[in-house]
Amino acid sequence: MNGNQLSNFLRVTDEQGSHIHVKVSGEAFLRTFTSLIEKQTQVAKRKGILISTLWSANALSRRVSLSNLPKNSLRIIDTVTMSLGSKETEIPNIITLPAPASLESILIEIERLMTEGKEEYSFLIIDSLGALSMDHPHSVMFEFFKYLTNRLLEEDVTFIIFDQDLDGTAAISRSISTLMDHNINMMKVEK
Amino acid sequence: MHGESGDHVFGIEKLDNLTTGRMEPGLLGLIYGPPGTGKTTLGSHFLFRGASLNQNVCLLTYEPTSLFTRKFQRFKCYESSWLKDGYISIFMLQNLMENIGIDPERIEVDDLDLLFDVMVQIISDMDMKRVIIDPGAPFIDLLNKNGRGSYLTELKIDLVKLNASAFIVYDIDPLFVNKREPGYIPNPNLFDVMIKLNREDSGRSPVNTLHIQRWKDAPHSRSIYVIDMSSDSVIMAPRLFPSEGLE
User: Which residues of B touch A110 (CB under 8 A)?
Assistant: First the structure.
C-alpha cells in the first residue's frame, strides 16, 4: 500500500452514506484502520460504531489509542472479550456481547444504538469480514449484509467493511461487493 | 397503506411497520409462546398505545392487580396517570367472580355464563377500546372445560359491536405441566391475529423471536424476527436462516 492508496481510500470515506468494501491486510490494514478511525472521529468530528471481531476491547485499545478519541465518538460492539474470557474493560462506550456472538445479536445492538436517539451515528465499521463470517454460512452472511446495508442506507450512515481476504471468504467477499458503492483492493501493489 | 398513527397497534415502530393493515375494531388476537418470551410486555404495549391515545383500555388477569401495576411502572413509556385517570383499568378475575357471587373454586356452567356477560358489560359500559386477557390460558381452559369454547366466537362478535379489540396472552406449555399438548393453542382458526413468541437456539446464543403468523385481511411480514424487549425499548432484527440448497 502506498500513501496515495490510503489518501484515496480516506477521501472515499468522506462521502457521507457511501458503502465501502476494502481489501487490505497485515501492516497496511492496521495503518488504514487506525487512520480511518482517527480521520472520522478527530478530523471530521463524526460519531460512529465499530464492530470488533478481531480484538477484545482491551486489545483494541492497544491498537488504537481509544483514550485519545473525542468523548463518545466511537461505540464499540465487542464480540471477542467474552469468548476469550478476558477481563472486562473499563473503557467506556463498549458493548460486550455474550459469546459466541450471533449475527442477530450484533444487528440488535446496532439497531439499539441507532434508535435509542442519544447519539446520531454517521459511520459504521466492521474490522474483519473474515472473522465475522467464520462459522456462518454464506447465505446467512449475505442476509446479514443485505439487511445492514439497507438499514444504513436508510439512515445515511457510511459503512466500511475491512476484508483481509482470508482463505474461504472469497465467496462472501464477491457477494457483498454487489451491495457496495466502492470495492477497493489495496492489496494489489503488495501482490 | 398504513393507517393513521392512531391505528398503530403496539406503538412499537418496527413491529407496527411489519403489518401494513389498520387495526380494525373487533380484532381478536392471540399472543402466544413459552414463558419468559415477552408476551406480557407486548400485551402491555398494546394497552399503553391505547391509553396514549386517550382510549379506555383494560386488563383482565388472574394475577394480583398490584403485580401488574409494578410491572407497568418498569416501562419507560408508561405514565402512572393512565391508571389514576382511569384510562387503564385492571380487573382481577377472581375478585370479579367473588363480587358477583361466583366461587372461583367451584365454577359451574351458569356461573361462567354470568361471568362472561359481566365481562362484556364492563367492556361496553366503560367504553373499553382495547382489552388484554393475561394470562389467557386459565380462562380458555375454563371455557373449554365447561363446554363454552364458543364464547370466544361470541366475544369476537361483541368486540365488533363495541368497536373494541382484544388480545389473549397465552402461555404454551412446553413442559406439559397443565396436561395440554406441547405447543397446543386453542381455537387457532378463530383469531384474526396470531403472534408467536419463542425462544430459539440460534446455534450461538439463544434468542427470543417474534413471528406474525396471521394478520387477517392485511398484508404482513411472515419473516421471523429476533426481538429484544426491555422496559426501555423493543428492538427487532431479522432472524437469519441459511437458505435451503445454497450451502
Answer: 237
